[in-house]
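Continuing the batch. This is chain 6 of the set; chains 1 through 5 are on the previous pages. Same settings as before, nothing changed between runs. Recording input and output for traceability.
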Amino acid sequence: MADHRLGEFLREKRENLDPDRAGISTTARRRTAGLRREEVAQIANVSTDYYSRLEQGRATNPSIEVLDAISSALQLDPANHRHLRRLSGRDTGPTTTVAVRPGIMKLLDRLDGLCAGLVLDDVGDILAWNDLATVLFVDFASIPFEGRNLMLLLVTDPELRGRIHEAELPRVVDALVADFKAQSVRAANQARKQAIVDRLNQPGTEFAASWASATIAPFQVCIDHVVHPAVGSIRLEVEFLDIADAGQRMVVYHAADEVSEQRFGQLAAQVVSRP
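Output for chain 6:
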């Protein structure tokens, strides 16, 4: 017999979410409260048919990425986010500290093809990204959430490290550690911060050397030069957007010079528009 608890939970949260709060402009009078199924699907970047089947109990085994996108669309708090994963059998570890607001997700989408964008929380967990960020760096969607942290990836992931010139890696790690120290002081999830530090702070490692330094500096430009296997060297300008009251920030990458702009454009051409 089908377990309808996931669908019932999704329907309840959808019907209780005010359209204005979700960034949906309404003019005509609505027959029912909350969002429509197609509106949740649009915000979460999934098909209306698939989301409807989830609510009806006809779709099983949704991916963590889909669940996290729906959680963000429904603006679930951390407890309800975790419950959503538990209902779907995907409670495999920590979840994002706060859902990414729909307006920020829309901004990421609008930047796609022009700039690469990431949304980070205050311990550097990567909460959201656009397609160009995936082409420029790594396929974030393929990385389990517990490992999808900018600091962890920079220190341990061969693919991301391979995008940075070997001679520049020490500077990049130093800058990111200094930024991590500054941002994580105010982190809501101190257990997550400590887990990252414990994992990386091994004797003799480049992280340990940087962590022992007294340098603390927020909003450090860390990755500003990518060596991409498809197009070569790309120099980047990096901008930070602090997302007020969310413990998050958006990091936006765009080309720094004419040659880099041409190569960046080649990568942007690979981005396939989302359905």
